[in-house]
Amino acid sequence: MGIEKTYIMLKPDCVKRGLMGEVISRIERKGYKIVDAKMMNLDEAILKEHYAHLADKPFFSEIVAFMTSGPVLGMIVEGENAIKGMRIIMGATKFEEATAGTIRGDFAHSTRENLIHGSDSPENAEIEIKRFFS
Ligand code: CDP
Ligand code: MG
């Protein structure tokens, strides 16, 4: 709790569909600040770290193919309780469970291509900000 920084990443589908502005606007309207941002092309090595919890899944290679299919926008987002707060405005991982009014609920029609990543805990936020911004 308190003022937190979280790692947010707009995935290749979000960039390709021209939804970066929409998503950034929602983050700003919520009252969070984007304190750093950069376009990046990810490779398999960084995805093996970032998605280590999924590396043994049969669909991991498809996640890598998707996440390397185009540029992503990495951001550091700051605000009161921003780690949990961003997860709430993102919506559930599975698109069919993501509530209308959330980013995934309004725009995702696939669980893989679900527009946005957000850190899920203070520990992971710190690790992910280091991973992508140092
Ligand atoms: O992104 P989030 O933290 O909500 O979910 P995750 O369980 O950490 O999974 C990371 C990402 O892997 C998801 O956002 C999806 O893009 C992908 N994924 C997938 O393609 N199929 C699944 N069954 C689960 C996750
Ligand atoms: Mg996750």
UniProtKB/TrEMBL annotation:
One cellular component term from this protein's GO annotations in UniProt = cytoplasm
What domain of life? Bacteria
Q: Is Cell wall biogenesis/degradation set as a keyword in this record? A: no
Q: Name one GO biological process term.
A: UTP biosynthetic process
**Keywords (A to Z) from UniProt:** ATP-binding, Cytoplasm, Kinase, Magnesium, Metal-binding, Nucleotide metabolism, Nucleotide-binding, Phosphoprotein, Transferase
Ranges where the Nucleoside diphosphate kinase-like domain occurs: 3-134
Q: Which residues does UniProt mark as catalytic?
A: 117
- Entry binding sites for ATP: 11, 59, 87, 93, 104, 114
Top-tier EC class: transferase
Q: What's its catalytic activity?
A: a ribonucleoside 5'-diphosphate + ATP = a ribonucleoside 5'-triphosphate + ADP; a 2'-deoxyribonucleoside 5'-diphosphate + ATP = a 2'-deoxyribonucleoside 5'-triphosphate + ADP
* PROSITE patterns, per database record: NDPK, NDPK_LIKE
Annotated localization: Cytoplasm
Q: Which cofactor does it need?
A: Mg(2+)
One Pfam family matching this protein? NDK
Gene3D superfamilies membership: Nucleoside diphosphate kinase-like domain
Q: What is its EC number?
A: 2.7.4.6
Q: Which SUPFAM superfamilies match?
A: Nucleoside diphosphate kinase, NDK
Q: Name one GO molecular function term.
A: metal ion binding
Q: What does this protein do?
A: Major role in the synthesis of nucleoside triphosphates other than ATP. The ATP gamma phosphate is transferred to the NDP beta phosphate via a ping-pong mechanism, using a phosphorylated active-site intermediate.
Quote the subunit structure annotation.
Homotetramer.
Q: Which family does it belong to?
A: Belongs to the NDK family.
Q: What is this protein called?
A: Nucleoside diphosphate kinase
Q: Which organism is it from?
A: Mogibacterium pumilum
Gene behind this protein: ndk
